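dumping this here before i forget
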Amino acid sequence: MTEPTSPTPATDDLDPTTAPAAALGPDELEEMDNILDDLRARGEEIPQWEFCDGFMTALICSRRPIGPAEYLPMLLGDGAELDVAEGDPLPQLPAFADAAQQARFMDLWMRRWNEIVAQLDTDVKTLDDDRTFQPEAMDMRGAVASLTDEQRAEMGDDQEIPSFGQVWALGFMFAVENWPEDWAAPRDKEAAKWLDDALERIVALTEDDTGKPEVCMYDEDGPPSTSQARVEAFGEAIWAVYDLRQLWKSMGPRVETVRKAPEPGRNDPCHCGSGKKYKKCHGA
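structure:
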């Protein structure tokens, strides 16, 4: 596995004078799921929390800071960026029932955001480290396999069940694909290869796990639902997130080069339309 290469944590996304918010506990994760379920009652395109977590992770790894006025409509609305001056509060998005629901969603969202930032900016050497970034990835196949026959019968057999980590990776790549300029390969060949390799490890999770089920990521005592190769690919994707975070932080935002229009030759007609040669007019 590729280990993170930066020996020094960077924490510029967090206020250094305050401790990061506590991680979301089971009750708060359930609350976030309930909010998204309620939003889905008004808009069926609202994604699951696992997708949202992947989307959020990509935003945190992006080369350019992308604010809520830009990314929330892409995740929960029509994609059109909100016209909000910097520092002004966000207007209520149509997906939310009221301002209080939106405020609570953003409170939970930012707590998870700060947790991810703190994890990615901490120097870790192993996935077993308690400080290591842990995606909110679900083993839905394991969850379904752990149901009783009666419960599975109620679900029906017409649902395609995603593989472990697949929905999270789809959320990550959704952000990458919707901000292509911010994920364009840098000119430096080594950095471009680093970017490509890291994204390939995440894209691998968007594909179906067709290997032999050997472990259950939903419940260690549950029926096998995930291949060992998938578990290893998931670990590689976590290191890929570290690599992407470090790559863009080391390079900084993309600088747009303003090209100056070439001046006309001295014997060319002047651009002002006077009919004189440039050397006899504005070039004098």
